[in-house]
Amino acid sequence: MSAIATRNYGLFIDGQWKETNNQDEVIDKCTGSVIGTVSVSTKEDVDLAVESAKKALRKSFHPYERYTVLKKAAEGLMARQEELAVILAEEVGKPIDEGRGEVARAAQTLEISAEEAKRIHGEGIPVEAAPGSENRQAYTKRVPVGVIAAITPFNVPLNLACHKIGPALAAGNSVILKPAEVTPITALVLAEVFEAAQLPPGRLHVLTGEGPAIGGWLLDNQDVNMFTFTGSPRVGQLIREKAGLRKVALELGNNSATIIHRDANISEAATVTAQKSFNNAGQVCISVQRVYVHEEVYEEFLTKMKEVANSLVVGDPKDESVNIGPMIAEKEAIRVEQWVNEAVSSGAVIETGGRREGVFYQPTILTHVHDDMKVCRQEVFGPVVAVTTYQTEEEVIARVNDSEYGLQAGLFTNSLAFAMKAADEIEVGGLMINDTSGYRVDQMPYGGVKKSGSGKEGPKYAIQEMTEERIVVFNI
Ligand code: NAD
Q1: Residue 204 pLDDT more than 70?
Q2: Are residues 239 and 386 in the same domain?
């Protein structure tokens, strides 16, 4: 797999590329070598982008034009799939085939957004039914919120950016994207793709540089009408507090649970669970972290899950045979190592993995855990899964719910009654029956409850967040 030549990237503001004197290096997470540099935005750049975004709103951008641009951008992404997969392997450390998958999903997200651009509609409101309003008629329409700031995390930098840009543009907004410092290149290539798709200038801006600085300047600028954020609960809360009365959509963390009931297909459940615990080195917000296995099938499940985990290859993400690449930074791998060591000192047993080599952490299964260990209670965001037993349906539902988070959960069972009970009682944004917490396709509503956030993604649902309902009443 050939490397992409080192490039210097500018900021994308008002349809123009602007290189600044101050540049940040972007590092290959596996080798540590520099793969490119990006410009560092100043406050003036942020204000210029916001002003241009606001100005662009005054120019017409009809739904069919939005459809055409988004459709072309989806095709443009697929035309650059291999190049983007290499960038994802380098700047994220994502295995190359997972990267290809992310590009294909990002194209899907834009295509679905394109389709939704043609379906945004209001409804007739029977105001004439109110006494004294016999001569009136009314309808609602959905109007864009205006200028949207989109702030994205490092782990899925392309598709999560598309989950914000796609619906925002489909709904007629202007967007300012602030990608994560450590993975900015995919976002800049995405801007090139939109430029080639002839997106009108001012509708999309990409600002690279430090999160707290750019985030702060965006929050200070009252011409930004909405913040859509995916990342850690700490930063999400800060944005919520500083945004004041403006709209905020937050996609935050999780310590995702999956239940394996005694009547499930255990071999299949163990295989899928092992795969979904270690994707992207476990750095996925719906990565399986807590596994609750019915005590009657525990041994069978654990044996199979260990077999699958042991077959996973850790190494250079550009090697086609590798399943698990490096973590985003060595300090994160060290943090995971410390959490595992802490669990072991409190009685946990390492069934497989439990070793760190630099930035790599082996896929790790822990047993004999208890619910108050960090590896269960907090978000690990690494390739570590804690497997434990349960006896009754009531007990396991209570333990899954005993969490600050509530993004998604999984349940393997052939009991319709248990599945229906879990759908009623498990406190999450999404419950996957006969799959893990890690299932997601891009058209579905996606978002959490509790500390996992508020507001939904999935183009159709994000468009609801990114538009206002306006009622028009006629006095005839
Ligand atoms: P992070 O919160 O550290 O950073 C996310 C983004 O916020 C980055 O662009 C960063 O530069 C920016 N940022 C940092 N400080 C800021 C500030 N003060 N003001 C404004 N912006 C600021 O998160 P991360 O480490 O990149 O990503 C990991 C987290 O993201 C995990 O908690 C994970 O669960 C979560 N995540 C959630 C979802 C979801 O859909 N719910 C998806 C992916 C990741």
Answers
A1: yes
A2: no
Are 467 and 143 in contact, with CB atoms under 8 Å apart? Answer: yes
Q: pLDDT by residue (tens digit) across 231-279?
A: 999 999 999 999 999 999 999 999 999 999 999 999 999 999 998 899 9
Is residue 358 within 6 Å of ligand 1 at its C-beta?
no
**Count of beta carbons in the 10 Å neighbourhood of residue 443:** 15
Residues 240 and 336 in one domain: no
Q: Is 150 in the pocket of ligand 1 (CB under 6 A)?
A: no
* Structural domain containing residue 331: 257-447
Whole-number Cα distances in Å, 391 to 23, 28, 295? 56, 46, 6
Report how far apart the first and last C-alpha atoms of the chain are (Å, whole number): 68
Nearest CA, atom 30, ligand 1? 231
**With a 6 A CB cut-off, is 206 part of the ligand 1 pocket?**
no
Contact 62, 180 (CB under 8 A): no
Tokens for 1, please give them: 């797999």
Q: What is the per-residue pLDDT for 2?
A: 43
Crossing angle, helix 185-196 and helix 81-91, to 10 degrees? 160
- Number of residues in the chain: 476
Question: Which single residue is written with the structure tokens 């641009």?
Answer: 69
Q: Is residue 53 located within the same domain as residue 151?
A: yes
Q: Interhelix angle for 96-117 vs 159-170, to 10°?
A: 10
Structure token digits, residue 254: 């999780």
